[in-house]
Amino acid sequence: TRNIDMVIGGHTHTFLNQADYVTNLDGERVPIVQTGSKGICLGYAKIKLDEAGKPSFTYKLLPVKNYLDKKVDASFAAMVDAYTADVKDQMQQVLSKRYVSRGLQFV
User: Fold this and answer.
1) Taking a C-beta distance cutoff of 8 angstroms, is the pair 35, 15 a contact?
2) pTM of the prediction?
3) Which residue in 60, 3, 5 sits closest to 30, CA to CA?
4) pLDDT tens column, 34-64
């Protein structure tokens, strides 16, 4: 592809502690980032352009649960836990099922 500066992944629940990179059709490296699942971490990504318009990229994974990192503010972790509890039922809701019968797929 072309004209994609960064890919923010989702749905696979993969934790990427550092960005992964792919090369686009123009030979430019494109970062791929993903923060895992269930609000355990936030991702911080920054794209800077130099004077020539060439991008540089910074990414880090920030834990928001204090059992992962004791430096996480306890009141912030409690706020995230409360939000997680509020949306837990919604996150468990099945939105679609796919059935396969004799090679035919039904959605």
Assistant:
1) yes
2) 0.65
3) 5
4) 988 877 888 899 989 999 988 889 999 888 8
